[in-house]
Design a protein that fits this description.
heterotrimer, A mainly alpha, B alpha/beta, C mainly alpha, A: mainly alpha, two-stranded antiparallel ribbon, 12 helices, disordered C terminus, B: alpha/beta, 6-stranded mixed beta sheet, globular
Chain lengths: 302, 233, 287
C-alpha cells in the first residue's frame, strides 16, 4: 500500500510537470495543444533509446529528451503558429496520433507495441522497491519545484508579459513590433520541453515504455489537471495534477466496489468518468479554459 | 411611435459607450442621427434593435416596452435594422437573401420578393447571383430590400452610404428619399451629416454617448455650432 | 499500371465512404463554427447501434443504417444541449477541447456495453466483381452509393428547403441571421442532429466493410480531419472532394509505405494543405 501511494505521488508529480508545460503554451501564450501525449512520448522514447541502446547515463538522457521534444515542438509551431486555433487543434491532435503510429510500427527502433523494457532507473538495482520509490518521488518533485519556480519567474518576466499580450490580441502585439511568430514558437518549445522531460522521467521510473501509454486520454488528463487547478497560475497546475491523480486512482477503488463489472467495463467506466469530469470542469469554470476573444467586438467608430 | 430613453449600454461589462442617449421617431418621420466618431451612433441603433443589452434606459414601441425582448422578437414587432457591415449573406443568391429577409413570414415571401424585384430592377437582374458578387452600392440596396421584406414599422439604417462612391451614395439616398416619401419611419445614422439633414425631418446630435441636440433638421442644419462641427462651417 | 488503377479505384471507394463523416464534420463546423472532435465517438455509436439493430434485432441493412443515424443523431444533440452549447459561448476552443473529452466518453460508453472484441454485421458477403482488370468489392460500391444518396439528400435539403436555407444563413453570417428572426439555438440543434446522424451513418458504412470495435471511429479520425481540411474547413462539397483525395492518397501510399501508416498520409495531407493552400481546395464556403 505504501509503495502504491508513493507511486501515485510520483505520477502526480509527472502530471504536475506536464501541466506546467501546458500552462506555458495555453495559459501564457494562448495556443491550443491537443497533442501533449505526443511530446510526452517523444521525451520518453528519446531517453529510453539513448540509455538502453547507446548506454548514455540517465542524466544525459534526461537532458536530451526535452531538447528533442522542444525541437519537435518548434517544428509543429512553425507550421501552425500563424493559423487559427481550429487548425492548431486538428494538427496537434493528428501529430500525437502519428507519433503513436510511428512508435507502434517502427519495431526496429521502438520495439513496436512491445515497447522498450529494462530502462535503467536511478540506483534501481541497489535500492529496494520502497527506497527506489522514495528516491524517484523526491527526484521528480524536486524537478517539479524547480520547473514551477523557473516558469513562474518566466511568467512574471518581460517574456511572459509579451506572451500574455499576444494571447489577448495578436494583431495589436504585432503592430507594436513584437516578433509574434518567434515568441509563439519559443513558448511552444518551452512547453514541449517540459512535456519531454516528464516523458524521460516516466521512462526511467517505469522501466518500460509502450505506445499504449501515450493515448489522447493522457492529453485529457493533463488538460483536466490544468483546468481543475486553475489556468494561468503555476501553483494551480500542481494542485490540479494532484487532484487528477486522486480522482483517477479513486475511481479504481470505486470500481473494486462494483464486483459485478468485468475488467474491460471497469476500465471503460474510469476513462469515461475522466472525460465527463473534464466536461464538467470546463462548464463550471465560467472564465473558460482559454481566454478567447469575446464574441461581440466593439466597433471602430461610433 | 418609437422612443429610446436614457439608454446606457456598451460592449463589455466595464464598457459604457452610451451614457444616457435619447431618440424619438414619430410615425412617418425620418430622423437623422449625426455626431463625431465614437459618439455611439451605431451603438444606439444596435441597442434599439436588440443586439446589445441595456444597462439602463428603455426602448418603447407605441408606448409598449420592448427592451426586454430579444432581437428576434423585435423584428417580429417591426423594428428592422440594416447593419453597416456584413449586412447580406455573401454566398447566398440575391433571391435567397430576400427570402431570408422575409423568413419569419413564409407565406408572404414569394409575393413580396417579386414586388421588391419589380421595384429594384437591378436586384431582379442579379437574382441568381451570389450576394458577394454585388458592388458596394448594390449590396446596400439588397440589404435595405431585405429589411423591407417584413414591411417593418421602422427602418434603422446604420451608415448606409459608408464606403460607397459618391455616385452610388447618391443612388442610395434616392432610394431612401423615396422610402421616406412613401411614409416609412426611418432612423438613419450618417457620417454625411449634410446629406442626412437635407433628407430628414428631424435630427439628433449624439456626442460622447449622450443626446446633445435634437430638433427639426433644417434648424440643426442652420445652427452655427452644428455647421462648424459637422458641416464644414 | 493495373496496380495503380486498382489502388485509385479502391481509393475512390474508400473516399466515398469517408465523405459521409467528413461532410458531418464540415457541416457542424460551418454552422457551429468549431471543430467537433466528438465526430469519431459519434461514428462509433452509430456503428454499434447499427450492429445492435442488425445482429440482435435482425434488421436488414437499410433499417440498421437508419438506426445508426438516429442513435448518433440523438447522442449528438445530447452533447450539444448538455455541454457544447454553453461552452461555445466561451469560444470555439473550449468547445473543441470538450469535444475531445466527449469522444472519449462516447467511446467508453460503447466499450462498457460491448467490450473490446471485434464484431461483424450479419450481412451476406459478396464476392468481388471484376470490371475488366479491376477488382471491385460490391459492399464498397454499395457504401459509395449510400454515401452518394446521403450527400445528395443533404445537398437538396440545404439548397431547396426553407430550413436548409435557414441553416446556410446561419453558416454564412450568424449575427445577421439572428437579426432576421432565425433562432440560432434551434439551428444549432438541427446542425448537431444532422452532423451527428451522418457521422453515425458513416461509422456503420465504414464498419460494413470489415468489422467494428470501440476504436472504429478513432481509427478514421485523422482521415476525417484530413478530408475536411484538404477540402476546406466548413465546405460541404469540399468534404466530398477532400475525402476522395485523401482516400486515393491513402491507397496509393501503399506503393511506398507500410500499410500501418495509412492514417499518417492524412496527417501529411493536412500539413501540405496548410502550408500551401490553407483554405483548402474549395475554400471555406459552406455550400
Amino acid at each position: 500500500m505504501a509503495n502504491y501511494l508513493l507511486a501515485m505521488a510520483t505520477y502526480a508529480g509527472l502530471y504536475a510537470l506536464m501541466a506546467l508545460g501546458l500552462n506555458v503554451i495555453w495559459g501564457l501564450a494562448g495556443m491550443i495543444n491537443l497533442g501533449l501525449a505526443g511530446f510526452f512520448a517523444i521525451g520518453a522514447y528519446t531517453s529510453a533509446l539513448l540509455t538502453v541502446h547507446l548506454h548514455w547515463p540517465i542524466a544525459a538522457g534526461c537532458v536530451a529528451a526535452p531538447a528533442v521534444a522542444a525541437a519537435a515542438g518548434a517544428a509543429v509551431a512553425l507550421i501552425t503558429a500563424r493559423l487559427r486555433g481550429d487548425y492548431l487543434a486538428i494538427v496537434t491532435l493528428g501529430f500525437s496520433e502519428v507519433i503513436r503510429l510511428v512508435a507502434s510500427n517502427e519495431i526496429a527502433l521502438t520495439g513496436g507495441t512491445d515497447g522498450i523494457s529494462n530502462i535503467p532507473g536511478p540506483l534501481r538495482g541497489v535500492l529496494d522497491p520502497t527506497q527506489f520509490n522514495l528516491l524517484s518521488l523526491t527526484l521528480v518533485w524536486v524537478v517539479v519545484a524547480a520547473a514551477a519556480f523557473l516558469l513562474a519567474r518566466l511568467s512574471a518576466s518581460p517574456f511572459g508579459r509579451v506572451l500574455r499580450a499576444i494571447r489577448e490580441d495578436e494583431t495589436v502585439a504585432a503592430v507594436a513590433g513584437k516578433p509574434v511568430l518567434r515568441l509563439k514558437v519559443q513558448a511552444f518549445m518551452i512547453g514541449a520541453a517540459a512535456l519531454g522531460l516528464a516523458g524521460a522521467l516516466y521512462a526511467h521510473y517505469n522501466a518500460y515504455v509502450a505506445p499504449d501509454a501515450f493515448q489522447p486520454l493522457i492529453t485529457i488528463y493533463i488538460v483536466l489537471a490544468l483546468t481543475a487547478g486553475g489556468t494561468g497560475r503555476m501553483a494551480g497546475a500542481v494542485l490540479g495534477a494532484v487532484l487528477v491523480i486522486a480522482l483517477t486512482e479513486g475511481t479504481r477503488f470505486l470500481a473494486a466496489a462494483l464486483p459485478f463489472l468485468g475488467a474491460v467495463q471497469v476500465a471503460a467506466l474510469r476513462e469515461g468518468l475522466i472525460g465527463l469530469m473534464l466536461i464538467l470542469v470546463l462548464m463550471l469554470r465560467p472564465e473558460g479554459v482559454l481566454r478567447e476573444r469575446p464574441r461581440i467586438r466593439a466597433p471602430e467608430a461610433g | 411611435m418609437l422612443r429610446a430613453e436614457r439608454i446606457v449600454c456598451g460592449y463589455g461589462s466595464a464598457d459604457e459607450i452610451l451614457k444616457g442617449a435619447d431618440l424619438a421617431v414619430a410615425e412617418g418621420e425620418m430622423v437623422a442621427i449625426i455626431g463625431p466618431n465614437g459618439a455611439g451612433k451605431s451603438t444606439l441603433l444596435k441597442a434599439v434593435a436588440g443586439l446589445l443589452p441595456l444597462k439602463s434606459g428603455a426602448v418603447l414601441l407605441d408606448g409598449v416596452p420592448a427592451h426586454a425582448l430579444p432581437a428576434r422578437e423585435r423584428v417580429r414587432r417591426g423594428i428592422a435594422l440594416v447593419p453597416q457591415e456584413a449586412n447580406v449573406f455573401p454566398t447566398m443568391t440575391v433571391r435567397e437573401n430576400l427570402e431570408i429577409g422575409g423568413f419569419i413570414e413564409p407565406q408572404a415571401v414569394a409575393a413580396r420578393a417579386d414586388a421588391l424585384f419589380a421595384r429594384f430592377p437591378m436586384l431582379a437582374e442579379k437574382r441568381r447571383q451570389a450576394a458577394r458578387t454585388l458592388s458596394g452600392g448594390q449590396r446596400q440596396v439588397l440589404a435595405m430590400a431585405m429589411a423591407l421584406m417584413l414591411q417593418p414599422r421602422i427602418l434603422l439604417l446604420d451608415e448606409p452610404s459608408a464606403g460607397l462612391s459618391p455616385k452610388a451614395a447618391e443612388t442610395l439616398f434616392d432610394v431612401i428619399r423615396t422610402l421616406h416619401r412613401e411614409g416609412r419611419s426611418i432612423a438613419m445614422v450618417e457620417q454625411n451629416a449634410h446629406e442626412a439633414l437635407t433628407i430628414a425631418d428631424r435630427g439628433v446630435v449624439l456626442v460622447d454617448g449622450r443626446t446633445a441636440r435634437h430638433g427639426p433638421a433644417a434648424e440643426l442644419a442652420a445652427d452655427p455650432q452644428v455647421r462648424r462641427l459637422f458641416l464644414g462651417g | 499500371m493495373i496496380r495503380v488503377l486498382q489502388l485509385v479505384a479502391d481509393g475512390v471507394m474508400a473516399g466515398a465512404t469517408l465523405a459521409v463523416p467528413a461532410i458531418a464534420f464540415n457541416t457542424m463546423y460551418a454552422v457551429l463554427r468549431f471543430p467537433n472532435f466528438a465526430i469519431s465517438g459519434l461514428a462509433t455509436i452509430g456503428a454499434f447501434a447499427g450492429y445492435a439493430a442488425n445482429v440482435w434485432g435482425g434488421w436488414p441493412a437499410p433499417l440498421a443504417l437508419g438506426a445508426a443515424f438516429v442513435a448518433a443523431a440523438l447522442a449528438s444533440v445530447a452533447c450539444e444541449l448538455g455541454a457544447l452549447r454553453r461552452l461555445r459561448r466561451s469560444g470555439p476552443l473550449a468547445a473543441a477541447v470538450a469535444s475531445v473529452a466527449l469522444t472519449i466518453l462516447l467511446e467508453n460508453v460503447v466499450r462498457f456495453g460491448f467490450g473490446n472484441e471485434l464484431r461483424g454485421y450479419d450481412l451476406p458477403v459478396f464476392r468481388d466483381w471484376r470490371l475488366g482488370p479491376l477488382r471491385l468489392n460490391p459492399q464498397e460500391i454499395e457504401n459509395a452509393a449510400c454515401a452518394l444518396v446521403a450527400t445528395a439528400a443533404l445537398f437538396l435539403f440545404l439548397g431547396f428547403t426553407r430550413t436548409g436555407r435557414m441553416m446556410r444563413a446561419v453558416a454564412d453570417n450568424p449575427a445577421l441571421a439572428a437579426l432576421k428572426g432565425i433562432d440560432a439555438g434551434a439551428v444549432a440543434v438541427l446542425a448537431s442532429l444532422l452532423g451527428g446522424g451522418l457521422a453515425g451513418f458513416g461509422g456503420m458504412l465504414i464498419g460494413l466493410d470489415a468489422s467494428i470495435d470501440p476504436l472504429t471511429g478513432f481509427r478514421v479520425m485523422l482521415s476525417i480531419f484530413a478530408a475536411a481540411v484538404v477540402g476546406g474547413l466548413g465546405s460541404i462539397p469540399g468534404a466530398v472532394l477532400g475525402a476522395v483525395v485523401v482516400g486515393v492518397g491513402e491507397e496509393c501510399s501503399l506503393l511506398l509505405l507500410d500499410p500501418a501508416y495509412r492514417s499518417a498520409v492524412g496527417f501529411l495531407a493536412i500539413l501540405l494543405v496548410l502550408s500551401f493552400r490553407p483554405r483548402g481546395l474549395l475554400g471555406e464556403r459552406a455550400w
